Amino acid sequence: MKKNIQIAIDGPAGAGKSTIAKIVAEALGFTYIDTGAMYRAVTYKAMQQDIYLDDETKLANMLAVSTIDLKPSAQGQLVFLDGENVSDAIRSNEVTASVSQVAAHAKVREQLVAQQQKLAANGGVVMDGRDIATHVLTDAELKVFMSATVEERARRRFLDNQKRGIVSSIDKLQEEIALRDKMDSEREASPLIQAEDAIFLDTTTLSIDEAAQAILRLAQEKML
Ligand code: CDP
Ligand code: CDP
């Protein structure tokens, strides 16, 4: 029996990756690693420091002297940047709108990928992102590419906002998501793409529990 496997979950925004990855990690007693939070933290710091987001060298130099820590807590994963809790700040609309621009730079990705690989080195992890199966954990025992229609993903984000008391428009959210998907899929450095050995999971009509159970079944097969 192989217990400490690596599970890689990739896919576009709003597919349900982080929600389902957390449930799967908890059920298996694994660590959940949200790599999107790391790209968001870099983007947040660059914006705070007024760094031009197309200046790859400056961004890479800034990241080289930064510390990003992911810490599990009762409220979910917390994100610390240079010791400061930025878990909420990195979810702002401003960061969301700019993160794909920062994530397109190879020199930024190289540093974050090295950190992610270290975090997953002992297995027992569920890691979600865009390039986990194709670049970060290429030997992961289970690779899932999760998606849903862009209309459903925008509807989910709209409901998320409503719960947080944020007024938004579904049409605008759909446009923003489609733009981010396009930037993430068309960039040169490790674009969002389904790995050849990944299993495709369409969550459009699945409940959270159904999607989590589907992945847990696959994980249990791999752990036999
Ligand atoms: O939660 P949401 O789907 O909105 O996004 P996220 O997972 O927090 O990721 C934010 C952005 O970071 C993505 O749109 C990508 O541009 C970038 N990202 C990436 O390039 N590679 C990863 N492994 C994870 C995120
Ligand atoms: O991490 P990612 O951007 O892929 O998506 P998420 O933040 O986990 O999910 C976006 C929203 O969709 C959350 O509010 C989830 O609760 C919801 N969701 C859903 O309604 N049905 C699913 N099968 C999966 C997620």
Automatic annotation (TrEMBL):
EC class of the enzyme, as a word: transferase
NCBIfam families linked to this entry: cmk
Major localisation: cytoplasm
Assigned EC number: 2.7.4.25
Record lineage: Bacteria, Bacillati, Bacillota, Bacilli, Bacillales
InterPro entries attached to this UniProt entry: Cytidylate_kin (IPR003136), Cytidylate_kinase_dom (IPR011994), P-loop_NTPase (IPR027417)
Cited Pfam families: Cytidylate_kin
Binding sites annotated in the UniProt record for ATP: G11, P12, A13, G14, A15, G16, K17, S18, T19
Protein name stated in the entry: Cytidylate kinase
Family the UniProt entry places it in: Belongs to the cytidylate kinase family. Type 1 subfamily.
Organism whose genome encodes this protein: Lysinibacillus piscis
Location in or out of the cell: Cytoplasm
Keyword Kinase among UniProt keywords: yes
